[in-house]
Design brief:
The protein is an alpha/beta fold. It has two domains: 170 residues, Rossmann fold (3-Layer(aba) Sandwich), CATH 3.40.50; 88 residues, 2-Layer Sandwich (Pantoate--beta-alanine Ligase, Chain: A,domain 2), CATH 3.30.1300. The chain has ten helices and nine strands. It has a six-stranded parallel sheet with strand order 1-4-3-2-5-6, with helices on both faces.
């Protein structure tokens, strides 16, 4: 594996390899098994696997969240090497943003709900950096985790808007033994909080059974109630949406693709997860 910090060096190296397919996994580092599952699939399906490690400042609407975000470059490199990654692209902020990126993307209804509502500007920052990375890597395929369900929809829309010839591949959520969705933010939880956090996946799973005999509104209410017994939990949202449009549904038969999406604080750490009800 080679480590590259400059876009020009990255492009020159990829060009020198003269491969048919380039796969790309964009990450913000603090890698875990979820990321590595994407990397392994990328390695398997492409001639060359590029993984970026870059904590993108423009997608954080909370400066404290940016400062708190875990950074483990040496450990990341070791994991990528073991997973068969060919290129670790680890640029500086100056390299990715030599000047301010003033582009404003429009994602319509996709960005007005859930994460878009609670983290204004977040998806514009995501689109800025992912488009910059796509321009740098020029991949044939790019891999994203389904844990960030709304982000995948945003990226797909961006690819259409900018007419990138890139296939976006969404990969399944990887979970810890407790069921907790793997996330870089999990490392910020105390041992006690990590045990508590398992409740998130447990509630989502149980809600699929509850939903068989109850309405959408009743299911949302039931999920919310499960987190009222511990003051450390603070719900941002739980929404049940059409998996394609991300718009809330009122009835189970409103869509053939129904997904429940949650964002919840455990102490100061914000965790997200989702579950499929249909589709």
């Amino acid at each position: 594996m080679i480590i590259i910090e400059k876009i020009a060096d990255l492009q020159a190296y990829i060009k020198s390899k003269q491969v048919k397919s380039v796969g790309f996994v964009p990450t913000m580092g603090a890698l875990h098994e979820g990321h590595i599952s994407l990397v392994k699939q990328c390695v398997q399906e492409n001639d060359l696997c590029v993984v970026s490690v870059f904590v993108n400042p423009t997608q954080f609407n909370d400066k404290n969240d940016l400062e708190r975000y875990p950074r483990t470059p040496e450990a990341d490199q070791a994991l990528l090497r073991a997973a068969g990654c060919d290129i670790a692209f680890m640029p500086s902020v100056q390299e990715m943003y030599p000047e301010e990126d003033t582009r404003q993307f429009q994602f319509g209804a996709l960005e007005t709900v859930m994460e878009g509502k609670y983290r204004p500007g977040h998806f514009n920052g995501v689109a800025q950096i992912v488009s910059k990375l796509f321009d740098a890597v020029l991949p044939n395929k790019a891999y994203f985790g389904e844990k960030d369900f709304q982000q995948v929809a945003i990226i797909r829309d961006m690819v259409k808007q900018l007419q990138y010839p890139i296939e976006i591949i969404a990969c399944p959520i990887i979970r810890e033994e407790s069921g907790l969705a793997r996330s870089s933010r999990n490392t910020l939880l105390t041992d006690e909080q990590r045990k508590k956090a398992a409740l998130i996946a447990q509630v989502l799973t149980k809600s699929t059974t509850f939903a068989t005999n109850n309405t959408v509104a009743e299911t949302i209410q039931w999920v919310n109630q499960q987190f009222t017994h511990d003051d450390e939990f603070r719900m941002d949202y739980y929404e049940i949406v059409d998996g394609n449009t991300l718009q809330p549904i009122d009835n189970w038969n409103d869509s053939d693709f129904v997904v429940g999406c949650i964002a919840i604080y455990l102490g100061k750490i914000r965790l997200i997860d989702n579950i499929h009800y249909k589709g």
